[in-house]
Amino acid sequence: MIEEFQDPLANYDPKEYCDPVERSLAEESVLTIQHRPYTTISPETPVRDAIKTLSALDISCLMIEAGGSLVGVFSETDALL
Amino acid sequence: MGLQENLQAEQVCSLPLRDPVIVSPHTSIAEVVEAMKTQRLGCAIVVDADSKPIGIFTESQLVRLLAESQSNFGSPVSQVMSHNWPTVKQNAPIVDVLKLMRKHNVRFIIVINEEGQLAGLTGQRSMLEYIADHFPEQVMVQRIGGTPHLHNREGA
């Protein structure tokens, strides 16, 4: 007996957006706005050097990288705390 | 209404405004930093005797001071604060906050009343909360998926 075909998209309602801002916020990925280049430091970097790097480059955070992986973030707020 | 329409129709006072760190021009930089740490805010607003904002001290300025070896944290904040920081009136449309942040490349916007007195603090964090509230379904899905909540650690 042949099973009756059921369209898997039968109950799919495409999302409706009220305006282009909503659409782009909901559907565009962070890839479209991510900031490059970014600056990395190692976990062993002294805090003083991290602060000097933030100041010299006039940026608000540094990526902490170890073994090719992101392991943390050092930000201006960390300097405050 | 859509987000774009809301941003133009709703007023700044409907944003989740924050109670800013308020200091006088004579407050020492060390005391200002301590107050920012205690209230977990990325800036302090310097006001005059009439509660009108005359300057701001941000964590970016703190980083610059820490990077300089000659910084004196006992000096009054008025010596290092930024003047002419962008302000927005309470009854202005929310979209003005976005425009000001973009134009001046800043994360904090000072909110003032009709008399020009300090009424609150808004900026990047307030806007994030506002936009997240507009998409409750998507934000909830993301949190269930294991993305940690933002800690209350940064700015407005």
List the total number of helices of chain A: 3
User: Terminal Cα separation of chain B, in Å?
Assistant: 25 Å
Number of helices of chain B: 6
Shape of chain A: elongated
Please give a quick description of this structure.
By secondary structure, chain A is of the alpha+beta class. In chain A, 30% of the residues lie in helices and 19% in strands. In chain A, β1, α2 and β2 form a beta-alpha-beta unit.
Description of the molecule:
The complex is a heterodimer of chains A (81) and B (156). Chain A is of the alpha+beta class. A 3-stranded mixed sheet of chain A has the order 1-2-3. In chain A, strand 2 and strand 3 form a beta hairpin. Chain A is elongated, with a radius of gyration of 23 Å. In chain B, the strands form 2 sheets. Chain B has a 3-stranded mixed sheet. In chain B, helix 2 links the parallel strand 1 and strand 2. The C terminus of chain B is likely disordered.
Features:
heterodimer, A: 81 residues, alpha+beta, three-stranded mixed β-sheet, 3 helices, B: 156 residues, alpha/beta, CBS-domain, 6 helices, globular
Layout: helices, strands, pairs:
The complex is a heterodimer of chains A (81) and B (156).
Chain A: H1 20-27, E1 40-41, H2 47-57, E2 61-66, E3 69-75, H3 76-80
Chain B: H1 3-9, E1 21-23, H2 29-39, E2 43-47, E3 53-58, H3 59-67, E4 87-89, H4 95-104, E5 108-112, E6 118-123, H5 124-134, H6 136-144
Parallel strand pairs in B: 1-2, 4-5
Antiparallel strand pairs in B: 2-3, 5-6
